[in-house]
Amino acid sequence: MNDSSTPARPQRLVLMNPGPVITDDRVRTALAGPDMCHREPEFSDLLTRVRHKTTLAAGGDDRHTSVVLTGSGTAAVEAAVSSAVPHGGGLLVIDNGHYGERFRHIADAHGIRSHRLELGWATPVDLAAVDRALAADPGLTHVGVVHHETSSGMLNDVAAVTRIAHAHGREVVVDAVSSVGAERLSLAADGVDWLAGSANKCLEGAPGLGFVSAARASFEALAGHPRRGYYLDLHRHYAAQEKAHAPAFTPAIPGFYAFDAALDLALAEGWEARHARYAALARRLRDGLEALGLEILLPPGQRAASLTAVRIPDGCGYAELHRGLRAEGFVIYSAQEQLAADFFRLSTMGQMTEQDIDRFLTALAGILPARR
Asked: Which pLDDT tens digit goes with each residue over 138-154?
């Protein structure tokens, strides 16, 4: 018997936006950890654990370490770029989407000279063009590349870019915000110089923490670089976390609790298994979308496992899709800028299930016929 005075339990809200993601109950529970002073030994222990696990998740070994920042993935990318590029250096920006272009905006904000290799959105990286650009301009000391370009769902060949850059004696800054934890990428195996990531998205922690992983020697060398910022000065954070085992500034302590729990789950599952889990969900979703007659932006060989860009069908605007699906318990995501008028995006990151995908496809099918 229903008691009308008892509120109905809210329906499961399925986040199909590419972060924040649906988290494991153990991660959400960890957010409610005890109050803690960040200058006490308990937090030093937590910080050290999280840094070590983050380095492992980024494919690092004993040569590597990580700095964890209270901030988004963008904060981590900005910290890496503004700290790693030396005085008089320059950044080759590989731009095939919104987040590739963001590298240029960050460089401009810090007065760093950049050369933008504009390839066009959803266009694979032209490795020969990268090689030519580095050969033509020795002053480009660093290369900025996005691993998973979430504006389109494209997965860029970071390992190949890194090989070319190293052949020219340059370093690579990788935006791995939407890939680390579920796509093949390794500091040690791929020789990535600077990897910027986020606690949420494929690592399935709570939003609010970013990180930069690199060789310890590279962090040490930052001591001689210009300080272009204050809060995002990577050497400041490294010195505090590595030498004093303490944060440079007041951190988001609940986020650290959650990230610690999420990293345990990520490392236990392994990136290969997580990739397979996401990819299976993506195949189920994409097959269902195609069965409904919807067009997917990228060909199969170029897609990341965790995001699908879909053409908005004729006679149905994004606002109607979002409103109708939100009423059924699903949050979808608009495309950005030049793709916004024609596409929307669906993520398969996080603790999503096959049942979620099937319910989504049923809900979508119920909306589309009336809009065609």
From this structure: 999 999 999 999 999 99
